[in-house]
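Work Package 4 report. The design task specified in the project plan requires that, given a folded chain encoded as structure tokens, an amino acid be chosen for each position. We show below one input record used in the internal validation round.
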């Protein structure tokens, strides 16, 4: 029955794809790029939440003043230079000449100022959960349209403001001309939103005013495909030209070994992990440690997901060079030791129903996840492993927007996540997830030594903070503050009819000007 339902589901989804593609008003296959991906957000307003900002950037709608290369250096993009005073608190950005929004309006210094200020105004008003203040706080922003400059006076010194302004929080939008930022945002990117079929697809058209020249495709269809098998089948059948993140190692290998496809893979800066909500039952450190010890993440990485993730137990990928390969694993895989740890702490099954209790409370952990980058695979494997040591957990599968909202509200015990750990080329803002007083701490973890080290990191203008970051990682390992899955290897797959569909280290950029007909 499960196999029958799976086949039926795939056929239904493919049928929907066919309807979308023939009814979207696009041109022929030669002038329409069809891109298949998971729907990470129903909103394209970068101030709504992080996923919305990323979607805006990934779909080629909005662009930033600076752009990351694969070494996570921030290079000029919509701007052509940035200068600071000696105190690194006054920054002058010179804008590139001739940049226009997709509606033909000039990208003036005033437009840039309004775009950045809007993010902070919406944060202050509680309009969404995007928090640009975790990246930068400022006293003033001044626009000089005649000189083409924007001057930002920050509240503290920053080592490199260009890296901050390269994050998708700071995509430059035409605030004054946009009537509905969620559905019809106006940016400077190669494509502009034409229509949205909510939850199914977005039809986009060429930005006729694009500053880099004529955009390769007249039409772009973003087609939402959740199921990995359907995503791969859609690429094989030609229903889509490009897909992001094939998460089956078997399917990925099939495309790699077929000359009719291009496969771009990178060892990303992403960690797959589950938040542990220290505001609830997982405030018990012994319980958290036993949970981590009960799960064989190495086997899951190598076998269950077939190498899509590289095993590791620190919160940062070891390839980033922050001392991750020097950490000590305080909770290595050992289910028998996990059982003993629980027994010794009195966390036992006293009513013989197969599940342990803590302080008289039946343990049944709410495991929040959504179907992206193998997170459901990890959640299912984790729940099975926990059952073997007498810990009950129930998976609550949802969509990306809902999961984010529940995470912010603290309505979970575990929350599956796959985060870029160096969003501005270094990990300070990612590590804020466990900083006790911080607004980005959605798990309630609070450790005095970690907080002190974080503040030291946050206030440092030193580029080499390896030792500080290493100490912080070790604290998270020692306290079992997160359930680390491993380190994600991102990919982009395309048909040979397309060139330039490459995955970036930052993966802020999916649809770019460089994707063209072969």
């Amino acid at each position: 029955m499960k196999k029958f339902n799976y086949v039926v589901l795939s056929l239904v989804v493919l049928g929907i794809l066919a309807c979308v593609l023939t009814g979207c008003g696009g041109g022929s296959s030669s002038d329409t790029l069809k891109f298949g991906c998971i729907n990470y957000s129903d909103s394209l307003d970068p101030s709504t939440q992080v996923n919305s900002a990323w979607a805006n950037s990934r779909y080629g709608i909005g662009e930033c003043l600076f752009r990351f290369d694969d070494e996570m250096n921030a290079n000029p993009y919509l701007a052509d230079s940035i200068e600071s005073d000696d105190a690194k608190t006054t920054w002058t950005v010179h804008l590139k000449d001739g940049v226009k929004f997709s509606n033909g309006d000039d990208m003036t210094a005033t437009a840039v100022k309004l775009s950045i200020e809007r993010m902070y105004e919406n944060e202050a008003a509680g309009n969404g959960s995007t928090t640009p203040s975790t990246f930068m706080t400022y006293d003033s922003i001044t626009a000089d349209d005649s000189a083409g400059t924007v001057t930002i006076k920050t509240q503290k010194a920053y080592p490199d403001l260009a890296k901050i302004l390269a994050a998708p929080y700071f995509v430059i939008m035409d605030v004054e001309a946009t009537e509905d930022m969620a559905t019809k945002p106006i940016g400077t990117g190669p494509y502009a939103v034409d229509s949205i079929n909510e939850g199914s697809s977005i039809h986009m058209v060429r930005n006729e005013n694009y500053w880099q020249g004529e955009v390769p495709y007249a039409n772009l269809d973003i087609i939402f495909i959740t199921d990995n098998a359907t995503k791969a089948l859609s690429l094989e059948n030609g229903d889509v030209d490009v897909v992001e993140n094939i998460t089956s190692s078997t399917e990925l290998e099939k495309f790699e070994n077929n000359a009719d496809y291009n496969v771009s893979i990178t060892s990303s800066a992403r960690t797959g992990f589950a938040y542990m909500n220290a505001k609830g039952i997982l405030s018990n450190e012994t319980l958290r440690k036993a949970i981590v010890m009960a799960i064989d993440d190495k086997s899951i990485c190598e076998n269950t997901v077939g190498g899509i993730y590289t095993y590791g137990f620190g919160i940062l990928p070891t390839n980033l060079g922050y001392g991750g390969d020097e950490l000590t694993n305080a909770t290595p895989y050992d289910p028998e030791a996990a059982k003993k740890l629980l027994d010794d702490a009195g966390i036992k099954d006293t009513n013989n129903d197969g599940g342990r209790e803590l302080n008289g409370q039946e343990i049944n952990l709410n495991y929040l996840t959504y179907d992206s980058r193998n997170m459901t695979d990890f959640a299912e494997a984790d729940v099975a492993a926990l059952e073997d040591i007498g810990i009950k957990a129930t998976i609550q599968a949802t969509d990306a927007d809902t999961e984010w909202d529940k995470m912010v509200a603290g309505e979970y015990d575990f929350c599956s996540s796959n985060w870029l750990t160096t969003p501005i080329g270094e990990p300070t803002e990612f590590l804020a997830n466990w900083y006790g007083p911080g607004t980005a701490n959605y798990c309630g973890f609070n450790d005095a030594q970690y907080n002190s080290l974080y503040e030291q990191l946050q206030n440092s203008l030193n580029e080499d903070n390896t030792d500080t970051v290493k100490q912080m990682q070790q604290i998270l390992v020692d306290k079992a503050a997160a359930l680390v899955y491993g380190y994600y290897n991102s990919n982009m797959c395309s048909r040979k009819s397309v060139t330039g569909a490459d995955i970036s280290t930052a993966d802020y950029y999916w649809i770019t000007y460089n994707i063209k007909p072969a």
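The chain is about 30% helix and 25% strand. Validation will be extended to a larger panel in the next phase.
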